[in-house]
Amino acid sequence: MIGALRSELLKLTTTRAWWILALVLFAYVGFTAAALALLFGALGDQLAEQPGSTPLPMDTLAPLVYSTVTAIGYVFPLILGTLAVTSEVRNQTLTPTFLSQPGRGRVLLAKLIVLAGAGALYGVVGLLASMGAGAVILELTGNAAGLESSDTWALAGRTVLAMALWAVVGVGIGSLIQNQVAAIVVVLAFTQFIEPILRFGATIWDWTAAVGRFLPGAASDALVGASIYTAFGMSGTVEPLEWWQGGLVLLAIAAAAAAAGYLTAWRRDIT
Amino acid sequence: MTGTTIEFRALSKHFGPVRAVDDLSFTVQPGVVTGFLGPNGAGKTTTLRMLLGLVRPTSGSATFGGVPYRELPRPLATVGTALEAASFNPGRTARDHLRVYAAAAGIPKPNIDRALGLTGISEAAGRRVGGFSLGMRQRLGLSFALLGDPGVLVLDEPINGLDPEGIRWIRGLLQKLAAEGRTVLVSSHLLSEVQQSVDSVVIISRGRIVHEGSLDSLAPDTVVMVDSPDRAGLRVALAGAGVPAVESDAGFAVTGAEASDLGAIALRASVPLSLLKPEHAGLEDVFLRLVGSGEGTGR
Fold first, then answer.
1. Residues A86-105: what's their mean pLDDT?
2. How far apart are the C-alpha atoms of A126 and A27, rounded to whole Å?
3. I need a surface site. Which of A105, B17, B119, B256 has the fewest CB within 10 A?
4. What is the CA radius of gyration of chain B?
5. B103 contacts in A (CB within 8 Å)?
6. For the residues B255-272, what does the mean pLDDT come to?
């Protein structure tokens, strides 16, 4: 098993995709966190003074900014996990993989563990960006950065966990949709377009909102405990899931995707 | 270094109504190079992939001395495999490609450079595989096969894409590996490609064996060329033994006698020989006839 883990780690580190994605994640999250901190940090007072507007609860501003890692950045570990499988199918490297390690379940397990680690690393990279840029700007605009608060660090820990789980979901999706282009299109379409619309649409009735809480992105936001989505009342009157419930929902999605991938794709003939 | 035998027992693979591999049984011996021949689509690759646990047989078995590939305790150190020239991540260097699989199989690091050296691509080890020629990819594929210093080698079309120098090199390598006592199974769709490097052949067509044995047995009407500095003496000796011979500038072309018989005749007549060579004239014709009519030819 140690060998299988080392092999999967080498697969990840000997190609460029992982650090390119990490770099883009850092820049994207850093920019978005800075923009949010600047917007609400500088204009928050004026927005609150507007008659009839719902005042933004200022004590949630720091978590809102820091949680951009998962709110917008979760697609990065998801894609990394997907690529970890589809690139093997695309390049036909499952053949040497299974020749050197005929235990296929072991290969999949090693891949899941290594990708979870990579996802956690992405969580740290994203937090460096969101907390680095966000905290400075919040302080400069006279808001609480909350770096001394244990709540902030608990959120950071849950962010790392969520990002790890997203990478695991990615491995499951890559196993189910083995065509690389199709898999990436599905991932991008679902995360950037379909799920946001579903989550917005789900707020119309209470019962749909109750179901909508179980969408993967909503579960991830619940796990982390803050998100730009939930900050604007998109969850309606229905209580969002507890953080641990969100974590379990995301874990269940990841486990189901990985198990389905194993039962379908990983036992197939390699031709 | 002694390889185990490779044993195919009533191996079959059906894709729907298509019998891609149909009841194959044969044994590959160590110490010789065995050619696994047949036209494209005859079922060679499917057979090899079943042997290596990549494709599940419909029925039957393929084992290494009785042990299926998936149950080998140290697969890469027991069986070395080169399947097709395309199984690389183009963004990975040649050395990293080998590192990934050496790690998975628990192969020690020094073996990586050794395998790269054996196939003559040490200098390209740090380059990304995406920029490799087909010939270099073949060599990297062979490096993967040799990674664990295995006693058994299974190579699918290893000569494809090699230049003439590469072809000569791989023939020498295969002979050397077999001479060391390893089991060497080499597939090809061209008999002429492996004719000079194989000791024994298994020919399949449409999933069934159409011939198994030595190359000599493939063409029973073998012509033996024999010549001597003492032409007249040899002519008398051959005539005396009642062997039909056709004389030409190149010597005598003899049909219906083994080279060993002719040697004995010359020895008894005390005629020195300058040439004694069986020639497989028309071997390719026999091969094409065999594979062209896979049905009905039987075993």
1. 93
2. 9
3. B17
4. 22
5. 3, 6-7, 10
6. 86
pLDDT of residue B296 exceeding 50, the answer is: no
Tell me which chain A residue has its CA closest to the CA of residue B68.
A102
Report angle CA A127, A133, A137 to the nearest 5 degrees.
135
- Of residues A112 and B160, more confidence is placed in A112
**Helix-helix angle A150-176:A243-261, to 10 degrees:** 20
Question: Is B89's CB within 8 Å of A91's CB?
Answer: yes
Token pair 């997203």: residue: A166
Contact at CB, A15 and B55, closer than 8 angstroms: no
Residue A51 has pLDDT above 60, yes or no: no
- C-alpha span between B286 and B277 (Å, rounded): 20
Q: Domains in chain B and their CATH numbers?
A: 6-214 (3.40.50.300), 223-279 (no CATH)
**Confidence band for A123, pLDDT divided at 50, 70 and 90:** very high
ipTM of the complex: 0.87
Q: β-strands B33-37, B183-188: how paired?
A: parallel
Whose tokens are 């900050």? That residue is A231
Contact: B91, A4; criterion CB under 8 Å: no
Interchain pair A100, B92: CB under 8 A: no
The total of other beta-carbon atoms located within 10 Å of residue B131's CB is 9
Q: Write the residue in A88, A95, A99 that is nearest to B75 by C-beta.
A: A99
pLDDT of residue A58: 54
Which one of A100, A101, A108, A269 would you mutate to disrupt binding with B, by most B Cβ within 10 Å of its Cβ? A100
Q: Provide the number of CB pairs (under 8 Å) joining chain A to chain B.
A: 86
**Dihedral Cα B55, B61, B63, B68, nearest 10 deg:** 60
Instruction: Check CB contact under 8 Å for A96 and B105.
Output: no
Q: Which of residues 79-118 of B touch A (CB under 8 A)?
A: 81, 83-84, 86-93, 96, 99-106
Query: Would you call B103 and A6 a contact, using CB atoms and an 8 Å cutoff?
Result: yes
This prediction has a pTM of 0.84
- Choose, out of A12, A13, A99, the residue to mutate when testing the contact with B (most B CBs < 10 Å): A99
